[in-house]
Every structure is written in C-alpha cells, then in structure tokens.
User: Fold this.
Amino acid sequence: MTMDDGHFEKELEELNKMIMNMGKLVEEAFYQSSIVLIKRDISLAKMIIEKDREIDLMELSINKKCLQLLALYQPVASDLRFITSTMLVVTDLERIGDLSQDIAQRVIELKDKSAITSLSDLPILVEIVKTMVHESLDAFIERDTLLAKKVPQMEINVKALRDAICKKLQEQMVKNPTNVSWGLSLIHITRYLKRIGDHATNIVENVIYMVDAQVIKHKKRV
Assistant:
C-alpha cells in the first residue's frame, strides 16, 4: 500500500464516521418525533424543528467529502460503490430528518390530544417504521445484506396499518365535520411515516448494491 493508499483509507474511515454521526442524529430526530406524536410533547417538537438545520449541514459536508474523494483518488470497485452509495444514502437520511420535522410541525398544529390516543394502530405503525430506520442504518454501517433484505418486507405491514388508520379517520370526519382539521393532519402524519419507511428501504437497496454490486431498486418489492 502506498502513502496515497494509506491516506485514502483514512479518508474513507472519516467518511464512514461522518455518515454514522448523521445516521445517529437522524434516527434520534425520528425517535423524538415519535415521542412528540404519541405524547404530544410540544417543547420537544420545537427542538426537532430547530435541529433540522444541523442535519442539512451534515448532508452538505458529506456530499462535499464524497466529491473530493472521487476527484482526488478516482476510486474503483467497492470503494467507488461505497462513496456513490453514501451520496444516495445521505439524501434519504436528510429526507427522514425533514419528515421527522414535518411530523413535529403537524403535532404542534393538533389541538385535540385524544385524536392521537384514540388510534390504537398508530403506535404500532410508528414502531415498525422505527425498526425499519434502525435496521437500515445498522445494515449500512455493518455492510449486512441479510439484515438489509429484511427491511423491505416490513412495508406490507406499514401500508396495511396506514390504510386502516386513514379509513378510521375518514369515517370519523364523515360522522363529524369538526373532526376534519385534525383528521387531515393525522392523515398527513401517516403519509410521512410511510415515506420514512420508503427512505429506509432506499437505504438498504443501496447497501445491497454497495456490498454485492446488485441493483434491486427497480425490481418488484415483495
């Protein structure tokens, strides 16, 4: 290994640490947004919104680092896949951060706490999506394709729960028009949760590409 090779390895290690730190911050933001949603903690919701800028800046820093490595070292094979996959993954992470902020903002707008607590499927949906996010990040950091392949399988349950919640909300809005405002807010929240699950699936698709050089993004998901 030449001196340049050694320096490149250190740069890759630094990049890996950067995405680990961003992943922890994003996972924390989503975890906090789930607390906000279930417990309607308005002060915590405001903290999530304020923290989103830090996530945005981390995305910019990581992308800048990736472009520098591509330009300076012209990596090939697995190193190239790691860098290009990282650029895609940080975009998904940034979107999860944005959606966590969106959840917090919607909760602030809700005035009826019972509207949330009356939906028994909502905490279950939140827990499944939390698992998807956590396991997608673990799969990326550990380069674990077996774990990666488990994440998309959870999408079926996410869709079923979201559909059930939306159906119940629509029924409540039809029965009582005064429920329309918070009902629509909660429908938006379930949409955000589903999209977070979609981004977790995007991450593991990139894990599989990064490790196995296999593109599954446009294949039918089971």
Observations:
- The mean pLDDT is 91.
